[in-house]
Amino acid sequence: MAKEHHIYGKLTEIIPERNVMLDEPLKNHTYTHLGGKADYLVRPETYEQVQEVVRLANRENMPFTLLGNGSNLIVKDGGIRGIVMNLQNLTSIEIENQTIVAQSGARIIDVSQKALSHKLTGLEFACGIPGSVGGALFMNAGAYGGEVKDVLTSTKVVDREGNLLSLTADQLDLDYRTSNIPDKGYIVLEATFTLEEGNYDEIKAVMDDLTYKRESKQPLEYPSCGSVFKRPPGYFAGKLIQDSELQGKQIGGAQVSLKHAGFIVNKDNASAKEYIDLIHFVQNTVREKFGVSLEREVKIIGEDPK
């Protein structure tokens, strides 16, 4: 307990007390509504606070986890030890000419809408991606033929030692749904996108079409992590799952969506274990039927209950 009070006191010296939470249920902070408790959940308001929390974790030899906005993520039922950081307070989006600088906690959907309002084209593909800017860089998010690396020019990150770095897009090794951000342990603070001038009506028409496709095909009425699997070369994950007759398959409260087979939804108060077990069941079934290995796009973190 003394250790807890010591760390809590140190955190509240860095971050306003309202943004430091003890034993916070992470199901309140994930799109799947899954996950046990974080020992400490912190929500910095400045880049300096991010740096200081990282340095504190290093000094105290405490585990440190960046949560993002919890969209493409499953947190296990045992929760996460140590310090968990959420960047939802870093949401600024600024535009100058054809350049947008967006902080990592801003929703990439909101950045695409801001681009539209300034008649800038290039981010239309992002109008239906639920993640944050930081998460979009983390996994080089994409949809409908576009991806982050097409428009990203630079970023500011904090490294594992708490240093602030300015990097070019090329330094992130962006590829299909991957980057070097997790391997390097970077915390994305902001991203700079360079777009092109376009016609407002044409940009809006594309975004309206993509929004319709998303809303008509995706099971947005239930909590989910979005697309569970990466697209296997030469196939579509959803089609393979559908052809395996797995739509509607349920383990506990987790279900393979009847609307889109590439989604697993939290239909009825699922546990993280049920959700993860269903992912494994789908992977095993598709491998047995078609000899294709489905690789997870969603990230799984945290501990199993003790």
TrEMBL record:
Cofactor(s) essential for the protein: FAD
Name of the protein described by the UniProt record: UDP-N-acetylenolpyruvoylglucosamine reductase
GO MF term (any one): UDP-N-acetylmuramate dehydrogenase activity
Taxonomic source organism: Virgibacillus sediminis
Active site residues per record: 177, 227 (proton donor), 297
Catalytic activity, reaction form: UDP-N-acetyl-alpha-D-muramate + NADP(+) = UDP-N-acetyl-3-O-(1-carboxyvinyl)-alpha-D-glucosamine + NADPH + H(+)
Origin superkingdom: Bacteria
Enzyme class: oxidoreductase
HAMAP family the record matches: MurB
Limits of the FAD-binding PCMH-type domain: 34-213
EC number: 1.3.1.98
Cellular location(s): Cytoplasm
Keyword flag Cell cycle: yes
Keywords (A to Z) from UniProt: Cell cycle, Cell division, Cell shape, Cell wall biogenesis/degradation, Cytoplasm, FAD, Flavoprotein, NADP, Oxidoreductase, Peptidoglycan synthesis
Gene3D superfamilies: 3.30.465.10, UDP-N-acetylenolpyruvoylglucosamine reductase, C-terminal domain (3.90.78.10), Uridine Diphospho-n-acetylenolpyruvylglucosamine Reductase, domain 2 (3.30.43.10)
PROSITE patterns: FAD_PCMH
Known pathway: Cell wall biogenesis; peptidoglycan biosynthesis
Family statement: Belongs to the MurB family.
Its biological purpose: Cell wall formation.
